[in-house]
Design brief:
The chain is an alpha+beta fold. Helix content is about 30%, strand content about 40%. It is built from four helices and eight strands, in the order H-E-E-E-E-H-E-E-E-E-H-H. The termini are far apart.
């Protein structure tokens, strides 16, 4: 686990809501490659990972809400275009969306789309994130119990 201690910490939010056909999650596109992802970013020194996840959800997707107490999991990735080829460890938290803004910091830089959980899982590339999305309904049920 030494690699995990050296990894740069990030936090991600999986924004979710109840839709007409059941649970939906919000995906956004990355700025550079335009692939489908969830809002994520650096955990600053004065933040908890939960606070960072909530901040990224607003900055990147324009949503606010309640971050769940328990994280869905952690996934790692290596950023190829980062000068050091750094490894990032992303803690992923469900975020129950309570409001959507008409304007937010990265509005013109990304697309966003609400999707059923299974459809969202098919669109993301990171295999660990796919699995976390698919476990979201059960994780939310357990959190309520």
């Amino acid at each position: 686990m030494a690699w995990f201690r050296r990894a740069i910490p990030q936090a991600a939010a999986v924004p979710y809501r109840s839709g007409a056909d059941g649970l939906e999650v919000l995906l956004i596109t990355s700025r550079r490659t335009r692939r489908w992802i969830v809002p994520k970013g650096m955990v600053e020194l004065n933040q908890t990972p939960r606070e960072a996840a909530a901040q990224e959800a607003f900055e990147e997707a324009g949503v606010r809400g309640d971050v769940a107490g328990k994280r869905l999991g952690v996934y790692t990735y290596r950023k190829v275009d980062h000068p050091s080829g750094a490894v990032f460890a992303v803690q992923v938290f469900p975020l129950r969306v309570t409001s959507e803004a008409d304007d937010w910091p990265e509005r013109g830089q990304r697309r966003k789309q609400w999707l059923p959980v299974n459809a969202a899982a098919r669109l993301v590339r990171e295999s660990r994130l796919k699995k976390m999305l698919l476990t979201l309904p059960n994780a939310l049920r357990l959190e309520r119990e």
